[in-house]
């Protein structure tokens, strides 16, 4: 397909679904020519060009009709559809807004909404939509991301929360990351270390609860929680733990009626459980695409969405890092081989010193903790992340990539 512009005329309550597949380092531009439209709840500005790189997938929705122009080479033809759950999602927002109004009148806490479902059903998109709509109503909700495989607030392998004060940027593909609260987990699935994951969830829930108590606007606006796609077995138990820790009162289940029925059975009566269909525009990802997505999240953390950030590279002497680099979780041992009084699950939260060798550190992402004592490592939020780009054993130094110049905190 050539570089000529394609024009799409959308009718009321219709969406244009776009999958960007173009040569590397190239992009397409999307422009709203007339009417009103939005991308995942963020309003588009007329005659403004939005750039999208290869691999991007998004939908442009209009409540009243619009004209869209797309410029650039595309291998997959965009298409329009009227079969969309957007009106249902809008009704969910309206119900949450009603709960916020009631909380405002009664001087109580606003709704805490959790979105659950298997992988590739649009959980992150629905969370973004609900948060954007809330902000457009003048609210200041808290976004909590527990999807360690995706890591929309920081990078994969972390969980965190952020106060949302303005709609997500279309261009930067996310919410403003001013003062996010991030915790280190270190794995791409919550099943890798369930004990640690549950402890982090409980700690984050407590901090969010305190934030809602001290910030009246955030307290009334409530919380929107994104979860991972593990909904069977221990994954379902984690969903129940999240609901209990955050004192969730609204659960939106996407796509899977089995999970919906299980939650209706297991949740207290005051928890409203809602089932909603996934959008027909949701694209399923294979293992390779998930890996590419995680790599892209890490790259954007250091270099920005369009390569507009410039990280710092500097050396750190081994002597400065002596007894300061840890990983959490030791190999499991049979109960018969463990010290008296120690349980097998204790190994999952045990601190292990990491040798300063290329095998253990090269091309690894390290969290930089605010704490000065190992005992507080798990439940202390992190200052940021660095990437080890070289380990020089002869000169006894590491070379790291960091968003901020040295020294590290």
Automatic annotation (TrEMBL):
Domain Clp1 N-terminal span(s) in chain numbering: 10-103
Main localization of the protein described in the UniProt heading: nucleus
Keyword Isomerase part of the UniProt annotation: no
GO molecular function, one term: polynucleotide 5'-hydroxyl-kinase activity
UniProt KW keywords: ATP-binding, mRNA processing, Nucleotide-binding, Nucleus
Domain Clp1 C-terminal: 309-409
Organism domain of life: Eukaryota
Species the sequence originates in: Lepeophtheirus salmonis (Salmon louse)
Pfam family for this entry, one: Clp1
HAMAP family hit by this protein: Clp1
Any GO BP annotation: tRNA splicing, via endonucleolytic cleavage and ligation
Domain Clp1 P-loop: 117-304
Protein name stated in the entry: Protein CLP1 homolog
CC terms in the record's Gene Ontology section: mRNA cleavage factor complex
Localization: Nucleus
């Amino acid at each position: 397909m050539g570089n000529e512009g394609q024009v799409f005329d959308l009718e009321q309550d219709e969406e244009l679904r776009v999958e960007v597949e173009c040569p590397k380092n190239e992009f397409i531009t999307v422009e709203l020519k007339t009417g009103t439209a939005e991308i995942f709840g963020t309003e588009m500005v007329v005659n403004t060009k939005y750039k999208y790189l290869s691999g991007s997938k998004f939908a442009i929705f209009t409540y009243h009709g619009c004209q869209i122009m797309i410029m650039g080479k595309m291998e997959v033809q965009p298409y329009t559809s009227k079969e969309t759950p957007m009106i249902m999602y809008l009704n969910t927002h309206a119900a949450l807004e009603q709960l916020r109004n009631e909380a405002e009148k009664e001087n109580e806490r606003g709704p805490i909404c959790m979105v659950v479902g298997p992988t590739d059903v649009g959980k992150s998109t629905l969370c973004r939509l609900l948060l954007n709509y809330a902000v457009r109503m003048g609210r200041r909700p808290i976004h909590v991301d527990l999807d360690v495989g995706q890591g929309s607030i920081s990078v994969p392998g972390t969980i965190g929360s952020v106060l949302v004060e303005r709609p997500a940027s279309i261009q930067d593909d996310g919410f403003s990351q001013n003062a996010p609260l991030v915790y280190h987990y270190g794995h791409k699935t919550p099943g890798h270390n369930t004990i640690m994951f549950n402890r982090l969830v409980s700690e984050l829930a407590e901090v969010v609860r305190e934030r809602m108590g001290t910030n009246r606007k955030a307290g009334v606006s409530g919380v929107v929680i994104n979860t991972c796609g593990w909904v069977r077995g221990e994954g379902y138990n984690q969903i129940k733990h999240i609901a209990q820790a955050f004192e969730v009162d609204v659960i939106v289940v996407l796509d899977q009626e089995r999970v919906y029925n299980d939650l209706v059975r297991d949740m207290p009566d005051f928890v409203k459980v809602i089932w909603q269909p996934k959008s027909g525009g949701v694209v399923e990802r294979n293992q390779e695409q998930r890996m590419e997505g995680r790599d892209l999240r890490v790259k954007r953390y250091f270099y920005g969405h369009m390569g507009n950030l410039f990280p710092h590279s500097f050396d750190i002497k081994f002597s400065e890092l002596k007894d300061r680099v840890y990983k959490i979780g030791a190999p499991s041992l049979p109960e018969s081989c463990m010290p008296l009084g120690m349980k097998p699950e204790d190994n999952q939260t045990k601190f292990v010193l990491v040798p300063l060798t290329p095998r253990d550190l090269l091309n690894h992402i390290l969290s930089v903790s605010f704490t000065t004592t190992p005992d507080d490592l798990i439940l202390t939020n992190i200052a940021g992340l660095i990437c080890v780009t070289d380990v020089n054993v002869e000169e006894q130094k590491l070379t790291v990539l960091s968003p901020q110049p040295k020294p590290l905190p």
